[in-house]
Amino acid sequence: MTGHTPSFRPSEDDVEKQQVHSETRIEQSKTRDTEEGGLGAVAVLEKNDDDKFNRDTGSRPSESTASLDEYPPPNGDRIRDVSTAEEELPREDTGAVGRVVSSKSSVAPEPAPDGGLAAWLVVLSGHLIVMNTWGVINSFGTFQTYYTTLLSRPPEDISWIGSFQIFLLFFIGAFTGRLTDAGFARHSLTIGAVLCLLGTFATSWCTQYWQFFLAQGLCVGLGNGFVFCPSLAVLATWFHRRRALAIGITASGSATGGLVFPSMVRQLLPRVGFGWTMRAIGFIQLGSFIISIIFLRSRIKPRRSGKLVELAAFREGEYTLYASGAFMCFLGVYFAFYYLASYAREIQGMSYPTSLNLLLILNGMGYLGRLVPNHIADRIGTLNVLVPLAAISALLMYCWMAVSSPAGLYVWSVFYGIAAGGIQSMFPAALSALTTDPRRQGTRIGMVFTIVSFSVLIGSPIGGAILTAMDGSYAGAQAFAGTSLVAGTVLISTAREVKRRKAGQPFWTKV
């Protein structure tokens, strides 16, 4: 017998033990969510456990710290993916089995399909939801005029109905956004649809101010809040490269509703009365909500645990500046949608049906404002498009003070409809681009929605109060809306600059 030591070949039992060992290490892996929600798992095996295992089996120790990919199971089976990272495992020592530490939250979900039947059906669902929410809100000018005459109340009192409706739509976003992340988007949509329909049909029987406020302001507003944020949060997970375009098509639902509902009021109100006009609107909403509930489907695996509000997001300069800019923009952008028709009648001497034509133009041009800028944004960046749109809207609001003829008012409505429509659609698209983790879309969108809710709550009533204080002169209210848009433009532009510098990119870059 010589001193030669024969090479050791693991027995079948050792091979099986090694295979079980590798699989167990995967199952015992611990993951943690990063601040930005980065995805993907990089598993690193501690060297001492690997060496100990090799000593147990007699196999050759690794030259360096082994990774799971460098040391696969002998049978060639592929290592199973680590799924969600929501349930963290305890940190106790796992001995020879080894401890696997994940540097990211989880294995990345499949890339967004950016198309396909299921994705475009989600877009259709979102379009119909926005039609029934923002389409009605953008049509409130028709109700503003009618209620002022019917109830003999000042304009600021009537505008509280519409502004409270928008307030609830945004404010509830923080809660429904978290529900969406947890996998309850369809439940939220169903609850919201029921509330919207209940409020719309109840409005048809209202005769007093407090009744209109409770039915159309409170009940419909609650319903809007339950349906709007989930539709955007779910949609954002289906698209990446074409996300801005998809959101633009969805947001154009407000233009659809802004054309359909004022036209219905104009045609039906003189013929069948207010009650049946509202019921007809309710039946249209019923059919479209059914379609939305059927086709709205989440793609991302639900994130069951998590905070309702992620305060860490506000440590990101661009996120905080963007939220502040959105607050200021929405403080003034809806003034025209509420008061354009009354301005046309009181200042330009137009009839009630003719004044509604301006609202139809304002909302109809929203198709261009929502589709064209969003299509461009997919190529040059959402913030690069939103900043000039906000600046143009501010300029147009000041120009409104100089309009002195019906023809000029028609022209102004065309341009402001495009610019304001662009702000409304680019706002969620740019906000979505500030969120890197698709599982947090609902929460982070909902947080900004809640902030914006207070600006839309007080914006139009402040304009109405200024209008009353100036004895029917619109100049002060127009200046207030324009100045709010200027402030919003500055803040959003600063948010863009912070994001650009953080990425170390040149000034003219896609942001």
Automatic annotation (TrEMBL):
Region of interest (Disordered), residue spans: 1-112
Q: Name one GO molecular function term.
A: transmembrane transporter activity
Q: Which Pfam families is this protein grouped with?
A: MFS_1 (PF07690)
* Residue ranges occupied by any Major facilitator superfamily (MFS) profile domain in the UniProt entry: 119-499
Q: Which InterPro entries match?
A: MFS, MFS_dom, MFS_trans_sf, Proton-linked_MCT
Q: Which GO terms describe its cellular component?
A: membrane
Localization per record: Membrane
Name the family.
Answer: Belongs to the major facilitator superfamily. Monocarboxylate porter (TC 2.A.1.13) family.
Lipid bilayer topology: Multi-pass membrane protein
User: What keyword terms does UniProt attach to this protein?
Assistant: Membrane, Transmembrane, Transmembrane helix
Basic and acidic residues compositional bias: what residue ranges? 10-35, 46-58
TM ranges are 117-137, 157-177, 189-207, 213-238, 245-264, 276-298, 319-340, 352-369, 381-403, 409-434, 446-467, 473-492
Put simply, this protein is called Major facilitator superfamily transporter
Record keywords: Transport included? Answer: no
Task: Give the originating organism.
Answer: Sodiomyces alkalinus (strain CBS 110278 / VKM F-3762 / F11) (Alkaliphilic filamentous fungus)
Any coiled-coil regions, as ranges? none
Superkingdom is Eukaryota
